[in-house]
């Protein structure tokens, strides 16, 4: 039985991804910082869990779990909103650990072991902000862009071993993180949250935000054996909002 390690598995896209992979027959382990929420989610789903902070430079349980996994989904909560010159050094440092160095540490643990076994799937959950930058999400835009570039390099390095590395870039998705961002924007712009939601939906051809399960479906496909020839790509899941052709 294939095994999967899923970040942010207690809620939102991470939990939906865990459900998707469990339905596909994988044995799933959730990881995240909040042990109580993780345990609750794991018990409800019939999964295992390991508590650990992706931003912690020394987190042996997470690294060990990554080495054992056939599928690793690198998914983490977003950093604080802020414009690029307003973000202070401590927030850049924290964001770098969470969105770049932490994922790279897990990739460093997971990919050689996957290569030895002749199969592996690393899926990095980024954001459409990488292709359609949002000024008030500067830390996310800059650091997820860097992780996207790293994923491209890793994809080429491990392809010959039956291992793929891809990114999924969600657009507006009905999660607690999206609500947090909208609340912050409402406060700074003196607009109502309802008005901002309406304005955002107006930019989405599908006319709505995604359900987390829709993002999970894309992740589940890239994690499957059927996706073995898809490598080094960014799969945008945003209801048609991103206007770039490529």
From TrEMBL:
Top-level taxon of origin: Bacteria
Pfam family, one: adh_short_C2
Family annotation (InterPro entries): NAD(P)-bd_dom_sf, SDR, SDR_fam
Family: Belongs to the short-chain dehydrogenases/reductases (SDR) family.
Name this protein carries in UniProt: SDR family oxidoreductase
